[in-house]
Structure formats: C-alpha cells, structure tokens
Amino acid sequence: MLKSLRSLCIALALLSQPATAHEVLPAIGDFQQTGETLTVDIRTNLEGFVAGIDLTATADTNAAPQAADYDSLRALAPQALESRFRSFWPRMAPRVFVRIDGADQPLTLTGVSVPEVGDVSLPRASTISFTAPVPAGATSVQIGWAAQFGALVIRQNGVDKPYDGYLEAGAMSDPISLSGGDRMSPTQAFAAYIPIGFDHIVPKGLDHILFVLGLFFLSTRLRPLLWQVSAFTLAHTVTLGLGALGYVTVPASIVEPIIAASIVFVAVENILTDGLSRWRPFVVFAFGLLHGLGFASVLGEIGLPEGGFFPALIGFNVGVELGQLAVITAAFLLVGLWFGAKPWYRARISIPASGAIAAVGAFWFFQRILG
C-alpha cells in the first residue's frame, strides 16, 4: 500500500506543473550581410528574458520562480514592454555572440517590435533587431547566446544555399560562410531534427508523456500496449505531415483542450476497465490525430530547412517516437518489470496512477478552456 500511495503522490505532484499555454519555444533568428554590416532579427518571447527566467531550466514559464513577473510583463502594452527590454538590453548584449572570423563583434540594438497584448495565456512573439560590423574580407560568422536564453533556430538570408540550423541552449553555431553554400544536406537535416522531436516529448511534452503513460497503465502486457501505441503513432504521423505541409490547420485553442481531454479519457477508462476494449485503439487513433497537430504547431514555430523539408520532417517524427519509447521504457523498468505481474497491480498502482493522471488532464482541460 505504501508503494501505491507513493505512486499516487508522485503523479498528483504533476498538478503543480503547468499546461502548455506558456510553453517555452525556441527563438527564431534570421541574419543577413549587407555591405559591412550583419543584421540579425530574432523573433522570441521578450517577457522571459526581462523576467530573468532561465529558459534552459524550465519548459514552461508558469513553472519558473519568476512566473508572476512574467505574467505582469505579458500584460504590458507594446510600448511599455519595449521600454523594459531596451533597459534590459545592456545586460543581455554581452551574452549574445556574433563571432566573425573568430573575433567577437560589438552589437548595436536597432529595433524592438512588440505585438499588442492579445491572449495573455499564450506566449507573445516579439522581434528584436541588432547589427554587428563585418570586417573587410571576412568569410565566416558564428552565432549563439548564453544558455539561459534557451534554444535558437538561425536562418541565413540573401545568399544561395543558405544555412539553416537548430542550436541547443548555450551552443555556438559552426562557422557559417557569409557567401552561402552551407545549406544542410538531407542526411544532416534528418539527423539535426531527431533531437528536436525527442526534446518535444522529453522533457517538454508533459501532456504527451501523460497520454502515453495512460496507455501504459491500462495493462503492462505487451500486446495491448502495442495496439495502442501503434494506433497513436500512425495517427500523429499522418497529421504531423499534413500539418507541416499546411494542408490541415486547427487553432491551438481547439487542439490543446482536446489533448487534455484525451488524457482524461484514457486514464478514466483505465479505471473503468481492466483490459483493451475493441474500440479503444480507434479512439486512441482519433486522439493521436490531434496530438499530431500539436506536434505540427511546434514545427510551424521552428520551421523546416529549405531543401531538406522531408528529411527534417521524418527526423522530427523519429525523435518523437524515440521520446515515446523512452517514456514507455522508463515506465516498464520502474513499474511494469517489478509490479506488473502482481495480483494487486491494478488496485494499488494502475487505478491510483490513472486517477491522478485523469485529475491532471481535467485541470489542464479547464485551464485551457478558461485561459
């Protein structure tokens, strides 16, 4: 019974974790050389920077100690937030790096564009622009920033075969030719997007993790799990592809609450039944279609590299699958391997854990509906 209560408490602790409305997304940086100047435009969430949130240490601003400061900044009018960021820039600039031919260059802030307030439950994507001098005869540039600012997608403009890459938090890019020609090969695009997909499940995809755990807790036997995971994988692969191609678009205000509802459904059914019903794989498939749209929205924010669209898309999906496999493997090693065959598994572990998962899903559902 102690193990059961411990499992329940751990799962209930997830209630303190946030929903995805304030999810931390990578910043998008576009750069281009014009004469002796390199211009960099970064679309990002300025509130997180100004509030002092370590965007590497949290997947959602609601989980940060500075969450209250972030929320107050999120409600500021554009001019007020711009003023706050301009005051913050002198502290940020030394931690943003533009390295040309191996030498760091001074940065000059040239613009801050902040959208209207809008829905305060959603991140606001502002744009900052800065320049760096390009010494005569320079051939390459490296771009990066401190880890606390999170992941960064950088895209080169104005040249043939431009560079397009994803940088983990704190990483510097490899030297990029200022004259172009560094576009990723299909193999490089495939490999580069695997960790992006994995990262969206572990650690950032808590709602997807809970859904997969809901599938796991129905039964630790392999056959029911394979049926469910196969249906889920097939479904989200279809809508991930269609969403990334732009054929299907559903607003996050619809997708996110239904994803939360899907968590509640599978968890409640775990409590009401002790085996795989005939229609559960079909329901899981339907919910998988919506999870795929959630994955596609992330790719929409990050973008896929020109000339490597399909390899990157496949790599992202492989990363998602590896993330799901990691969750299932961890659940099996921690729970299924030791307790799955016990006669009291369902009463002491499956039902309490499923109840906690259902509670979290219900909390998120109403939070996302009500904003």
From TrEMBL:
InterPro entries in the record, alphabetically? Put_HupE_UreJ (IPR032809)
What stretches pass through the bilayer?
Answer: 254-272, 284-302, 322-340, 347-366
Alphabetized, the UniProt keywords read:
Membrane, Signal, Transmembrane, Transmembrane helix
Record's keyword annotation contains Transmembrane helix:
yes
Q: Does the keyword Transcription apply?
A: no
Query: Which range is the signal sequence, renumbered to this chain?
Result: 1-21
Q: What is this protein called?
A: HupE / UreJ protein
Origin species, per record, is: Paragemmobacter aquarius
